[in-house]
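Anyone else keep sequences and structure tokens together like this?

Example one:
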Amino acid sequence: MCKSGDVLAILITSIPIFLANSYIFRPLMDINIHTSNLRRIICFSLFIALSCCLELEGQSCPPPQSDDLIVLDHMDHPSTSAFSDLWGYASGGKEYAIIGRRDSIFIEDVTDPYKIQTVVSIWQGDISTWRDFKVYGDYLYSITDNGTNTFHGVVIYDLSNLPLSAPQVNSLTTEFGRCHNIFIDEANARLYAVGMPGAMDICVYELTDPANPTLWGCYDLDTISSGTNTLYIHDIFVKDNIAYCGHGYSGYFIWDMNDKNNVDVIGSLPSSFFDGGYVHSSWNFDNDDKAVVATEIGGNPGIYIVDQSVPTAPVKIAQWKQPLHQCQDAGNLDRKRPHNPYVLGNKAYISFYHDGVQVLDLNTLTLDSYYDTYPENDDYSSGFPGCWGVYPYLPSGTIIASDRSHGLFTLIPGACNTLVAVTDARGPGTLDAGIACAEDGGTVTLSGFISGQTINFQDIGQTIRRNLIIEADPVDNITLNASGNNPIFHVLPGVSLTLRGFTIQSSSSSTQAIINEGILILDDMTVIHNAGQDAIRNTSSGQMSVTGDCNIEN
């Protein structure tokens, strides 16, 4: 690990070098250095120092996203309350994400994954860290656990009228007031609720009438297996009336739930097979012969592969984890923890707290792709921030993920490409895709393939959340046109956007081409305004500079 003295030595030597050689500093050579400028210089030099130190250590950190998993949009609901789990729902060509917050449920329209829209918000009137959701038909089933005055049981909402409304139609409170998780075996129309306080471990409901479930049975599994009140179920996966359960420090159990009068254990693996860790959750491979099992705390939390092709004798056959922040926090890699795994085809999509969404190739047990939803955190010892849940089952292939601090993300798998080669609004090769793919400080290039063409922005626009450069060769004569109700670019405070070598224009009388709350740099640009509207609007926090051969009509 880097020592403070090493960083200080590099910092002391790097500041003079930076001052003498940086093109950023040269314009300041003949004027007094402002405190803010000096602070930036010192911070940049400290970054250099830390980077050098890390390189000396022979370690490197990956960028916040991989080339094969790209974020498209992000929706936050600012609050002191943290977000929790999520689920998906699709109907009538529309796709939705259902995400929990400590005090609310939000239903987000993600049909256009580049533009998340909140359509329903449900305030449940209590505070609960844990909210879990599942969908059957057109009904949403919601539970809460361990909250103040949390006695809702299973609450049922009708989703058939989305995006207009999702009214509550029922609640099941007779058997319990709160529980930790639910699962729906859709093929057999049964809902399984687990993690209730007290002796009861699992309750099962028939969903023949989805709005009015009927109780199939509740069970204290310790009385069945001669345990000693240790078979609390933290999470559950069910297929063909067989329940695969994470029993915490008691291990991983498989239960036969075919006969309500003869529920029995089929096979099990104690916690010792998982390095003594807490078996949190699991998901079966598509053919059910194996399972991805996640341990959240204790031992060395990670992902385990269990062979359950002989269900009476399951066997642990592999384990995996790949920390993204190993260069910053090598001393706490044993605390990097997964949360919830989901399997689709030959990949497992895993919410990995500090390390965001990680996609595991189940054929090779290697990291396929990732997106770090919580990049500001690089300390694995700091509890449970970051990604809570991920849902890969929407028909369009859009992946949705929830982050405790940052809310909802929409992502797509696919190779990263920052070259804009088509003028379509959506899809590979578009400006949207290029911006979504670019890293902080990266460059998006408007290709000569669209020489002489205009990209029209009507019902879409780009919120610029990280520092970017968008450039073209001026000889290609490419134009970006704001022709609808949204600006082409909305630059957020503290973010820098450099535009170089093309034309920006507003042909709509109702909107600007650019709204700038950050730092806007125009280099060799042409800007054309509509007679009734400025092309660029700087807010009170916005700063704009012009360089090169520019023609600005504003």
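And example two:
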Amino acid sequence: MPSPRLIFALFLALSAVLAQKKPVTIDSITSAAPHGGPGSIQWAPDGKRFAYEEAEKLWLYDAPAKSKKEIATLSDLTAKAVKTPEPDVTDWQNRRVSEQSFAWSHAGKEILIATGGDLFLLHVDTGKWDQLTSTADAERDPKLSPDDRFVSFRKGHDLYVIEIATRTVTRLTSDGSDTLWNAELDWVYPEELELGTAHWWSPDSKRIAYLQFDVSREPLFPQVDLLGTRAKLEPERFPHAGDPNADVRVGIVAVGGGATRWMDLGETRGHLIARLDWTPESHAVAVQRLNRVQNRLDLMLADAETGTARALLHEDDPFWINVADDFRFLAGSQRFLWASERSGFRHIYLYSRDGKLLNAVTSGEWEVTGIAGVDESAGELFYTSTEQSPLERHLYAARFDGTGRRRLTQAKGTHSISLSPTGEFYLDTHSSITSPQQKTLYSRNAAQVAVFHEADRSIAETYDLLPIEIVKLKAADGETLYGRLIKPAGFNANKKYPVIVMIYGGPHVQSVRDSWSGANFDQALAHRGFIIWQLDNHGSSGRGHKWESVIFRNMGEHELEDQKIGIRYLESLKFAETSRMGIHGWSYGGYMTLYALTHAPKLFAAGIAGAPVTSWRNYDSIYTERYMGLPEDNASGYERSAPSGKANELAAKLLLIHNIEDDNVHFQNTMQMIHALQRAGKHFELMLYPQKQHGVSGKARKHLYETMAEFFEKNLR
């Protein structure tokens, strides 16, 4: 019989084995069931309750009581909906249209729910619901009127309202067609201007303002579904750089129907309608109009009765203007809040209704990343910013005159805020490099009320998540560059390891942040013995407009110079074998991968370019012209920035990856690169996927990861 000491030793050994965490593998990141949790919340008008979806149910959370209850099973409603036809091709092309699946009534007694193509009105107190529509065609982008009497929606290419009490449907527009879209966005507006809807109720519920898109001049890109017995043409309205955009105008129509009053905003052709807001009195709409290359913006006030418009203010920028959702009319006063990057950083300014600047609300060499809410009774603004660190996001409050600024969130990392309409509570979604996401409810004085959703630590407890190190480097202009480094599993400083540089590099994305990333492909590669490195270069977001504008009319060059600083840092690490270094990126990162391989061909041994732009003439008008100008005005810049024009310089092993029906970066880009490489006598590998989106998803994602990992194993070992 074993001695007690031996039994105890065996017990300790077994416990150590059982406690050992698993390595992160491709199987573990693609086969694990997604961890459920509450979806985005919608505050009730009283500011004390919010609704959210979780596990196919709709829930109500009471903030003062710190309690929740189920109020609807969404599958029950979906089962009552009339089956709608297969989604039209425009459904998958307009991936950034922000149609809400549910919304509170303004009285806070009902919730409008859109499911299965039909509309339902849920009575919150009783849990009973009424079906408002039962049609074969889906009611899209529904909105309750402020007086809760009507619901507006789009069906086909036209705008409708239904009166809730009588179920009477009124068609407000009747000229919609394949090329004339009422209250319906084209592809490029939501994608590049982040405009999520195309109609808005007046505060008095008497009228609706909407955008009409004439897309007849927008070219049709010939997308083709090749999976069936017969190829199926699925053309996509997509203006490339220099192509005609949609002609867009603003109309206002009465809720009872009748003729549309068109706002006289001047010549619409050659301009972009970026935002629209009603005045609190419902007398006029404020329209933000950009010129085509987006370096001039006019805030215009158009009279709802006459259509006559006048300019409230005008913004110019030597580079371009980034549009945001930080414009606010202050009800009960003749003032409004306005965001501008005129100082080189986005800040909030207070204006009088006649367009006179009163004062700056925020200022400093950091940027406001968004307005969380406004408490007009207290004269206070709540906003998130990078003041603490460009790697973090925190909530602050300040009075409209700019005084009394205070930081409300304290935990290091990234905070995303949902403020109640009254400002009494806010839900803080927080994470950091070392802490998974947790949702916590606070009162307006930053006192914790309750933990709404605990952080899911099961991934961290199950898998060996390798530490992420933040590295600071100096750019040529003296500014700080931030990089992140993951050392391989079982790291030994006396050994040398191959390196994989992950890259995005483009505008409106910040990759190096103090936020949770969990078990991902980077971790899986690090567990295979690779060093993982990523650096945010000039041109990326989170550092202010001055920082990002270095890419103006010359994409690729400045980004690569910053990336070389990161490479020199890696070369200084004795354990990094930079002669066996690869690079990988997707979208703009795919572009930067090809740009680096063709403009610095000796830096990398191998690269994987996913969904890459290979010539900016192939990409959409609004994005490309913002940074590069019109092709006819910057022909040399377009030519200089195109990796396809430097295909003969390729020296590294290359894998190209693309979805055939990518709606964003068209497969045309990869095909042109293939053509250029073949003409230059360069060999490469190619992997295609048949999905109708910009990224590879579903079961194919495992295949994608395995393909990329095997490519790097083969070429960097």
